[in-house]
């Protein structure tokens, strides 16, 4: 069997047979090398890049592989491909997260910013329908260790296994499935995962999926209420920020105009406005008939008033006739 391919160290593992756990006949190869991304971050120096992970891989499997079976280092976390939950932030995102964590040490009574509410909204989700994800075939993962010596020791142990003639066979997830089954049996066969977080496969997985498809009303209400409360706080925070920006003069000397509720006018200002209106009316008292168009408008108003009174009198006469009845003239 090849020991390296294109700079990757080959680590063969045996996958348990689905029909019998005692037999392990399928050989699966993991391709491992030191993680060297195009844009290195703070964790690149203590990470391994693993290609062709098994479809049933979980973080527990890799912790068990490097911590117990190889016994060379402690794993801090595992970032799987196509897995948003384990996605590590990039350089820009990490700096943003650092600023957010620094802002968390705020004074008592100080409210959160809109960016913090947006990040909280992204973490609120409905209950999942699967208790254990399956990986696409041929996908990769980034295994981050607690420190660089642990990563180097793990990579060195993998390379030693290639040269050693007396090497023990690594069974993928050995004893994890048995421990999970025992824990589930002690829990009255409720199909819950063990303390190590390894959920069962096979028919138990789909039985659990059928149950998780219909979450309880309390769980749904909890998720929805939490999301709506954070969303309302986000809208309030955005309104406050827009109001603050509206009072700040920019570089060109302009003030940003924002939409918002009308500000209440104080009592003193309102009285002053009434006084100004009254003074203006007094000044224009003797100037009603000064211009010709004013005289025309007054004539039209008088004509309209006369027509209105005529129509009212006409309706009044008709009403009186209707009440008295029809009058028949004498012959």
UniProtKB/TrEMBL annotation:
**UniProt feature, compositional bias: Basic and acidic residues:** 81-91
Q: Name one GO cellular component term.
A: UTP-C complex
- Every Rrp7 RRM-like N-terminal domain range: 5-178
InterPro entries given in the database record: Nucleotide-bd_a/b_plait_sf (IPR012677), RRM_Rrp7 (IPR040447), RRP7 (IPR040446), RRP7_C (IPR024326)
A GO BP entry is: ribosomal small subunit assembly
Q: Where is the Ribosomal RNA-processing protein 7 C-terminal domain?
A: 212-326
CDD domains in the record: dRRM_Rrp7p (cd12293), RRP7_Rrp7p (cd12950)
Q: Where is this region: Disordered?
A: 81-114, 180-201
Family from the record: Belongs to the RRP7 family.
- Name this protein carries in UniProt: Ribosomal small subunit assembly protein
